[in-house]
Amino acid sequence: MSGRVRRAVPADAAALRALQRYLPSPAPALLDAALAGTLGDLFVAVADAPVGYVLAVDGDPPVPSGARSIATGGSQRHIAELVVAPSARRRGHASALLATLLADRPDATLTLTVDPNNTAARALYDRFGFTVAQELPGFFDGDPGLLLVRRPRAE
User: Fold this and answer.
1) How many other C-beta atoms lie within 10 A of the C-beta of residue 126?
2) Which of 28, 68, 72, 146 is the most buried (most CB within 10 A)?
3) pTM
């Protein structure tokens, strides 16, 4: 990978909003709050310009009404958005973003939701130790989702 990962700054706003358009279910309000410094942690992968970002918020993952909640205990973060520009994929940017997020708070349990058919994302999350915690029927506008969890490694 050529590039680096750093915390996002307000000057990244336009580039991150452009990247957000690649997400199937973007959350512009979450991105705006993270850019303003009022919500979560926002890291950006930079080559010559931002090519991806990860946004993690503290707390429980969103689950549909009636789905069971996963009790994790301790510090918990939910990865609300992770995106890399199509032209920058397969160059290690998503791995670098996840590694930075893990290094930032190694004691936290991480959760995220993913389309079960997104094999590239599933492979990435498998490499980082995420496991399926729950199937979420109809989570993505009627399509299924998976809730993945990564618990801190015991020392």
Assistant:
1) 12
2) 146
3) 0.88
Residue positions counted in the chain: 155
Tell me how far the alpha carbon of residue 97 is from its chain's centroid: 9
Identity of the residue numbered 3: G
Q: How far is 90 from 94, CA to CA, in rounded Å?
A: 8
The three-state secondary structure class of 65 is: coil
DSSP string, 5-62: EEE--GGGHHHHHHHHTTSSS--HHHHHHHHHTSSSEEEEEESSSEEEEEEEEESPPP
Each residue of 33-74: pLDDT tens digit?
999 989 899 999 999 899 999 999 988 666 544 444 555 555
Determine how many CB atoms are found less than 10 A away from the CB of residue 9: 11
Asked if residues 79 and 29 have their Cβ atoms less than 8 Å apart, the reply is no
